[in-house]
Amino acid sequence: MANLKEIKRKIGSVKNTQKTTNAMKLVSSAKLKRTEELAKRSRVYASKLTELIEEIAQKMQQSSADGIDNVYFKEVKNPKKVDIVFVTADKGLCGGFNSQTIKRVSQLLAQYKAEDVKVRLRAIGRKGIDYFKFNNIELSNEIIGLSAAPDFKKSAEFISEVAEGYVKGETDKIVLVHNGYVNMITQEVKEDHLLPVDTSKLELNTVSTSELEVEPDDDDTLLDALVKRYIEYTMYYSLIDSLAAEHSARMQAMDAATKNAKEMVKELNVKYNKARQEAITTELIEIISGMESMK
User: Fold this and answer.
1) Alpha-carbon dihedral of residues 195, 96, 247, 191, nearest 10 degrees?
2) pTM: predicted TM-score of the whole model, two decimal places
3) What's the rounded Cα separation, in Å, for the pair 27 and 112?
């Protein structure tokens, strides 16, 4: 009978776990819908901002024989100092979501180390911070709470400090890594070369049909302001994109956990019924044996 009680206790425990994972799946599904909508709106703004930078940069390139002479566009062929900004979640229970980002950052670290490049890590999210601290890898910056609740002002302050180091010559390149949202079942690790601005992604060689006219700007005030806003919004969008991917990954993980718990309950019920039948059979044999001995 003790065996029956143990199996029954396990069935109850697994059922409770199943209820929890199913609830977490529903919560993540609801949060994903809200975050996905926010990501769509943010993507439109980012697209328009990129178009505007393309337009200004294109006209500056056409007006100068040397191309775009701006600190944010000057690419160093062999960078010796690189800042890696990466985003992970503050919570787990989302499958391999965090490990994929950590794996990519670790690969970049190994790659730059082989090239004798000095790297500074700037982390957003508890899971990434905990991983690199556990492995005794130094972090220049660390923020907890921002990846779970993206805030434009806080993210802008964070990335502006990093960009300021680039302008001062403290770093030659800034790379942004996060696990982004593709669709309900897919996430993709994205790596953006934040600074210098990746001109390969800008359509600078196309014929402009815009009626926008740019006045001469010797100190690049307009372009600088646009690039700063572009950097700030790219950082903010990566947080939203990462959060949508996190909810998607957690929804999948909890769905799989719920299904596994359901299968486990079935197996335990079969085991319980077999044990119960064995116990009943044993009792019957004992009763029959006792009656036989009394004859």
Assistant:
1) 10
2) 0.85
3) 40
- Assign 96 to helix, strand or coil: coil
The tokens describing 150, both together, are 């993206």
CATH number at residue 260: 1.10.287.80
- Determine, yes or no, domain membership for 212: no
The tens digit of pLDDT for each residue in 125-162 reads 999 999 999 999 999 999 999 999 999 999 999 999 99
Where in the sequence is the domain holding 8, given as residue range(s)? Answer: 2-22+254-294
How confident is the model at residue 74, as a pLDDT?
A: 83
Provide the pLDDT for residue 90: 96
In 10 A of CB 230, how many CB atoms? 18
pLDDT of residue 211 exceeding 70: no
Helices (H), the chain: 2-63, 97-114, 126-134, 152-167, 221-294
Residue 147 to residue 246: CA distance in whole angstroms = 10
Percent of the chain with pLDDT over 70: 88
The two three-digit tokens of residue 136, written as one number:
């005794």
> Which of 190, 179, 241 lies closest to 38 in space, CA to CA?
241
Residues 63 and 164 reside in one and the same domain: yes
For residue 188 the two structure tokens come to: 């993709």
- Cβ atoms within 10 A of the Cβ of 120, count? 18
Tokens for 265, please give them: 């309950």
